[in-house]
Amino acid sequence: MKVFLKYIIQIIAVTLVFAFGIQYFSDNGFKQLKNSRYNDWANILNGKINSEIIINGSSRGFVGYNPVIIGDKLNLSCFNLSFNAGSYNLQQSKFDIYLKNNKTPKVIIQNIDLAYFVKSTKLPDEEQFYPFIYNKSIDSLTTKFDNRFSLFRTIPLLKYNQKIKMLEEGVIANFSNPFEKNVKTIQGYCPQNRIFKVDYHNLSRFPNLTFKAENKHEILLLHDMINFYTWRLHKDAKIIFVWMPEYKLRLTKSFDLKRESIIDELNLIQKKDKNFLFIDMAYDEMSNHTQYYYDTFHLNEVGSNLFSEKVSMKINEFLN
Amino acid sequence: MFFNSIAFAIFLPIVFFLYWFVFNKTKSTQNALLIIVSYYFYSCWDWRFLFLLVFSTFLDYYTGIQIEKGKSEKSRKFWFWLSILVNLGFLGIFKYYNFFAASFSELLNSVGLKTSPVLLNVILPVGISFYTFHGLSYVIDIYYKRIKAEYNFIDYSLFVSYFPLLVAGPIERATHLLPQVKVKREFDFEKAKEGFCQLVWGLFKKVVIADNCAIYANNIFDNYASMDSFSLILGAVYFAFQIYGDFSGYSDIALGVSKLFGIDLLRNFNYPYFSRDIAEFWRRWHISLSSWFRDYLYIPLGGSKGSKLMQIRNVFIIFLVSGFWHGANWTYIVWGLIHATYFLVLLLLKKNRNNFGKIRISWNVSSAKTIGSILVTFAITCFSWIFFRSLNIYMALDYIKRIVSFNFTLDSFKEHVSFIIIIILPYLILLEWNNRNKECPLFDRFSKIKVVITILFILLFGQFDIQSKFIYFQF
Q1: Do B189 and A15 touch (CB under 8 A)?
Q2: Residue A125 clears pLDDT 90, i.e. is over it
Q3: Do A11 and B455 touch (CB under 8 A)?
Q4: Domains and CATH numbers, chain A
C-alpha cells in the first residue's frame, strides 16, 4: 500500500509541477504584456498608475475615452479604468481595487448611459482576471460572482480549460505580442479600428415607451454612485458624469422619455454641488455620422479621438 | 453520482481508505462495506429504485437456491421461469412497454382503427438492463448446472450491485465475479497501479474525447438539414468517437476503480475501431454484452451450426435483440439489422473467423490491406451509427440522402474541425494503436509520463461545464 500511495503522490506531484509551471509561464506572459488589459491590471495591482484623472464606465467607456488626449488637453495624468461589459457594481469594485493600490485621483470622469443602471450578475470578460487569481482583491471580486474561481485557485490549468488559444497567447506573450488591433490597450483605453455595422440585437433591447419614465431606481443609483465617489475621494475632488454621443438610430422618442428624469436629476445635482459636473453629449453632432461608430452603441477609434477632444474642452472649462 | 463528477472524486478516496484501512479485517467486512457504498452510490440517482434493485437481487438469490434444491425437473423449471419472467417483466414494463403500446396503436391507426395508446409515466431505472442481465445469467447458469447457487446473501448482493458495474456494466458472470467476492482481497500494488492508469484513461476518453466530440456531433445531427455532405460525414465520425469514448471510457473507469478494490471485472472493449472486419468488431465492442448474447441466446439457438437458413435466422435474432436491448426505438432495431447484414456476408462467405490474431503492421502490401480493411470496417460502423444516433428512421434516411448528394464547402471544415479535436483524436488513436495488445494504453512502458500527459490533457481539454451523462446509462 505504501508503494502505491508513493506512486500516486509522485504522479500528483509531477502533474502539479508541470501544470503550475505551464500556468505560471502563461500568466506571467500576460502580466508582462505591454498594451494589454492584463498589463493594465498588473499595473493597477502593483500601484503603478496613480493618475490624477480616472475614467470609469462600461464598454462605452472602455472604447470611447482616449486618456492620452484627455490627459494632454487637461495637462493631468489620466487612466481609463472602465470595465468592459461591466455595470455600475463592477465599476465600483474595480475602482475600489484601484484605490487600494494607487493614489486617490483628483478628477473622476464617469460615463453613464441607459445600460449603466443594469446590475451585472455575471462576471463579463472573466479571462482578464486569470493571471491574477491569487491576488486577494481579485479573488474576493471573482468568487463573489463565480464559484469556479475558487477551483481555479486550487486546480492548476483549470482556468485555461478549453481555452487553448488563450494559453498559447500567454506563452507567446513572454516573447512577443500576440494581440492584434482592437485588443491592445493604451492606458486602459481600447481603441477600435472598425467600420460601422448596425447592431440590431442591441437596438431591439431598448424598451418602447409612450410616457416619461419615473426612474426611481436609476435616480437612487445615481446618488449611490456619487456618494460612492464622494466618500472615497478628497473633499475638493471633481466628479464629472458624461453621457457620450449616441448614434442617431438610438435617439428616439422612447430614448428621451426613458432618460428625461435622469437628466433632470443630474442637472439638479450639478446645481447643488460645485464639485459635480454633468456633460450631456447624447445629441452631439457626432451622432449623425457613421464614421465615428462601429455600432450604434460604441464609438470607433476616430470617433473616440474626436469625442475625447470635445469632452476635454468642456472639462477644461469646468476645472479652470 | 457520475464517475466524472466532483462527488465521485470525493466518494472514491473515502471508500478506498475505508476499504483497505478500516474494513480490511475479513472478506465479510470488505463485502459489507462495498454493499453499503454500492447502495448509497445507486441511491444518489433515485433512492426509490433501490427497492427494485433489492427485490431483483432477492428474487434471483432465492430462485437460484430453489432451482439448485429442486428435486423434480418440474420444480426446477418453475423457479427458473419465475425468475426469467419476473426479470424480463420488469425490464419490459420499465423499458419497452411504452414502445410496444405506441407501436401497436400506430399499427391500428394505420389500418383505420383510431386508438390512443395508454402510456406509463415511469422513469427508466438506471442500469436496469445491466443488473437484470447479471441476475439472468446467474439463474440460467444454475439451471444448466454450470455453477452452484450462492447461499451467502451478502456475497450474492455484491455480485449484483457492486457499484463500479452497477449502472452501465460490464455485464458480469457469476463464474467470474463470485469467486473473487468470496475471498478476502489483499492489496496488490501492480493491480492497483493498473487500475489507476485505467481510471485516468477512462476519464480522458469520457471528458475529453466523448464530451468534445459530442459538441460537434450534436450540432451536426441537430442541424443536419442545413449541413453539407462533408459535415454530415464528420458528424457520423464524431458520433463514433463520442459513443466509443463515452461507453469504453465508462467501462475503463469501472474496471480501473474495481482493480483499486482488488477485483477484476470482465474486459468490455478491446480497441474496436482497429477491427479488420465486422465480426472482429463484435468481438471487441461491448464484449460482455456480445458474449452474453452469444452464450445465452446464439449458441442455444444453434449458433453457426445447422442449415444456412438456421444460421441466417440466428444471426438476425441475436443482432435484433442486441439492437433492441439498447433501447425501445426502431432506430436501434435497424442498427442491429444493419450489423446483422454485415455479419451475414462474412458468415456466408465463411470469413467471420478470419481475424482472430493480433494486428501486425509493417511496410508491406499485406499491411496496407490490413489498414484498408480497418478503415472500411470503421466506415461501415460509422454508417450504422447514423441510425443509432438519429431520432427516427426518417431522419437517418434523410441524413444519408444528404450525404450522397455530395455537396461540399470549405467553410464546413473550418466550422466543424477545431484545434482541440486535432490534438485529442490523434492522441487517442496513436496511444491506443501503439498499445493495442494491452488492456490499458497508459500501463506498462513510460506509464508515469503517459499518465501525467493524460491528466494535463484532461485539465486542459476536458468538458467540465456540462454535467453530461454517460450515454449507456439510458440503456
Answers
A1: no
A2: no
A3: yes
A4: 38-153+183-319 (3.40.50.1110)
